[in-house]
Target: Tat pathway signal sequence domain protein
Amino acid sequence: MTTPFSRRSFLQASMLASLPLATAKAQPPAATPASGPAAPAIQPTKGAALQWLEGSVPALSNGATVGLPWPKGAFPKDQSFVLAGAAGEVAVQTWPLAYWPDGSLKWTGHALPAGAGLSKELAIKPGKAAAAAMAVRVQEGPNAVEVDTGVIRATIPRKGVELISAIRRDGRDIARGGRLVALTDDQPDASAGAVRQTSYESTVKSVTLEQNGPVRAVLRIEGKHRSGQREWLPFTVRLYFYAGAESVRIMHTFVFDGDEHKDYLRGIGVRFAVPLTDEMHNRHVRFAGENKGVWGEGVRTLTGLRRDPGEAFRKAQVAGVPVPPLEQMNKQVSSRLNLIPAWGDFTLSQLSADGFQIRKRTKPGHGWIDASWGRRAAGSGYIGGISGGVAFGLRDFWQRHPTQLDIRNAHTDAAEVTLWMWSPDAPAMDMRFYHDGMGMETHEQEREGLEITYEDYEKGYGSPVGVARSSEITLYALAATPSRERMAQLAEAVQLPPQLVSTPAHYLACNVFGGMWSLPDRSHPLKARIEDELDRRFDYYRSQIEQHHWYGFWNYGDLMHTYDEDRHSWRYDVGGYAWDNSELSPDLWLWYSFLRTGRADIFRLSEAMVRHTSEVDMYHLGQFAGLGTRHNVQHWGCSAKQVRISAAVYRRFYYYLTADERVGDIMRELLDADSKLAAVDPVRKLKDAPPPGKFPVRAAFGTDWGSLAGNWLTEWERGGKQRYRDKLLAGMHDIGAMPKGFFNAERAGYEPDTGRLHNLIGDDVKASHLNAVFGAVEIFAELISLTGDAAFEKAWVQYCAMYNAPKAEQAKVLGKAHNGTNALQVGHSRLTAYAAWRSKDAALAKRAWREFSHPPAKPVRTVRISGPAVLNPVDEVAWISTNDTAQWGLAAIQNLALVGDYIE
Model:
């Protein structure tokens, strides 16, 4: 018997009030979520309030881009928008990111000019966009593309070695000859003999103009690295230009396509030249350190000499401003300037997360001098003179060690700068698999290995060929040497680019990402306890990143899988217990946590995870292209190459919130991942998998088809090819038509060409604890809402209600109990909650809370471990695993939203 169902607290949080947007002032994100269920009164059809992610107005903005959702039917696809600020309307460039099935706008991207929107009260509203006071202008020629921001002008050749041939300001070249460089060794170290090193430079294959102003211009450059006749390491570089900006943002991506047993990357970076015309004593070098610290010196120093040039000269050089005329200098110094060394070469190397060094020398062939040391450099520098130069920065500099900034030939008429994403001072990059297979040759032997180390090993499958990494670089073409304070501001903008977001209430009101979440609600003591525990679990993982140093070029952005209580460390070296690689959806837990709270620290951790998991944990070319790699000691080590890891469901949050083109590329790489499933059978090692019969592939409805469905749904809403929509709808129809719905689709016959699914088990009933925990819950909720497919909804609600149901009830409804275990009961409680909400069944709602609460979840309470038991003190939660944390977090968020009024 059912009773009337209510979601009062959820509706209170998401209801659309009639107050105008102007009364809903943007609030800076709090360090912890605000109490109470009520959302600020908003009316999304009238616009969206914006706020700076970190809460405070940034000191400077090089231009900003934000993605915003809209309710279904609110705006037509050609709707224009304006940006309203405290000082009036600001120019904004708008483009569609996604559409609702009725063709109305679902997500839009918006770009602001440099220096614009630097206030707290901002809103995007429907209306005619204001004209840009200073617009980006692009001229396309047969040999090059010219981009003018109104402050700087850049020339991008269509072919050749250079990505940017020149950046000019006020008619003068500030930078020239921008190119990519790479170094390889033919062996990992010199223990086996002499190492032969090879140098590579970029060769451009194509230049595509993706956006053409008036506020933002984007160029995509593709090519490979070349030395002699060999071309490899394909790259994609995007250049971003904003109206009024004195900078260019560079998004650099490379894919490893070499032989890990022969090609050991020793360095990969971006290099350019900086023309210098000022006197040696009016040339300056700057490096940003830690906590806004700046190291700065002249190429020819005037301080500390035996003879004093004069206080005005010393202070001017330290400040980076022109020194007085030499006629006013102490002649004992001015007559001997040529005898003061000119320092031509400078290097800042960050070889670990906890130490950097600055060195300098006069020129090649002479010794290096130790200049300074520090812990964590901000990754920015400057070389130039009083008449201008280039500031440059690499984001996540110390987090992605080993990194390096080089300045060479500063004593000549053209300095050379290299930003190394992998420092050549570090050991060569060794990407070989970490063990020799230990005699495992057959699937039976591999299953034995899985039994002891949880590692799904298979010879030849631990290959890095096809993994990628993207890096963000900013170049500033400056008219003069920046002050030390200005240098610190430039470095901060590189490391923490100002990001606009909307409010959690706006995201919620637009019913995006399935709508199965609510704003934090502490109106009930048990709800308050759950909210507090959600906060504690995130805070604990954030602390673990630091305490256990989850940093490094290939590692930063990932989490570990399971803790080792005996060693007081995470199981970094134990098979499948090491790097998590999106296992059981920590990505979703983090993104939903951000949506409901607006916390900047959650966003930034999620952002780093997207950059890592979408690049390193999946393949971008080769035999596994479009597939991801299950958790392992090495990110690419596991033989389980599956769509459940590469799935767009983990990437689309960041894409829609930021309009990031690189993540948009990656999601389109996934569209035909199903074509790999026949050759890389996801169930090839399972003893009880049903035979495929006449169908090319055996696919699970959640870990396989559900992941594909998320890829295709994203393409459909982005306005892509209808072929993927049709494959998606075909699979939904087939599941809905099976006699036992999803219980017949635990392993189904699959046709990649058409997307059709076929029942392989007749009237039998099967279930897997993994099928619902890789984004299927969230994607299926969206599909039901978007399509109205009644048969698919009925089948899914039945699965949700029956998975955790008592065996007797399963037998009564399904004819027999399913074969699934009780594993992940807490995670599956949100399925019960969904069934309760869709069927308005209060008894199911109460059952969902019992499943969530019994046995009670262990609270995160840390124990400090120090002394000789550990290398460094750690705060320990001995029982914790990322699987349980992610699934508990998602269940808490969704149960609160769907059945919050039935909490016991």
